[in-house]
Amino acid sequence: xxxxxxxxxxxxxxxxxxxxxxxxxxxxxxxxxxxxxxxxxxxxxxxxxxxxxxxxxxxxxxxxxxxxxxxxxxxxxxxxxxxxxxxxxxxxxxxxxxxxxxxxxxxxxxxxxxxxxxxxxxxxxxxxxxxxxxxxxxxxxxxxxxxxxxxxxxxxxxxxxxxxxxxxxxxxxxxxxxxxxxxxxxxxxxxxxxxxxxxxxxxxxxxxxxxxxxxxxxxxxxxxxxxxxxxxxxxxxxxx
Length: 240
Description:
Layout: E1 2-9, E2 12-19, H1 26-38, H2 54-81, E3 87-91, H3 92-95, E4 109-113, E5 119-124, E6 127-128, H4 134-140, E7 142-149, E8 160-168, H5 177-182, E9 186-195, H6 196-202, E10 204-206, E11 213-219, H7 226-238
Parallel strand pairs: 5-8, 6-8
Antiparallel strand pairs: 1-2, 2-9, 3-4, 4-5, 7-11, 8-9, 10-11
Helix pairs in contact: 1-2
């Protein structure tokens, strides 16, 4: 399901993971089903305050959910390879009981150790490479952390951040995501991650083209490549 790759960046060798997407898998169908449910309870305006079409809202939800679903499977593989058998990886949208109506206390992913009761939360924020090559995107883009806005003055950090990137193999618009996926013109990669501590210390605020919100961001190549990030996650549970 996962293929580990290495690129040469300005910082040296950079390890990433390519997901072998199966458009007929339960992972994709589950993400599609949940996106259709969730989009009914999200506001029309994006973080930039502009109205979004229903199609764009749905495709953004679908893209994000695919990234989360595969992030869970990737982390499970790391824990299994490290023989951390008492750890469970939970995605909130898989276990929630509110039919996607209540946004309170949401999280993306958490890892729970049933023996020590240790819990770490992981946030996933995906995007498309658009007109960049994958390597250009690794150099140009950020790991995206919490945001502040006129309605939200305080940051809420989680323990870790993982960075999925969808590489569109042909020019596309965001609302065309599902169509490109069906035609296999989209590849998914996990390219980096970072801890809360790294985000707090080295992250900077960026508008991300959002007029009313600012995101705490850390350049991908200032974070951890995927093998370093894997070691960080394993270390968090192996040394309790």
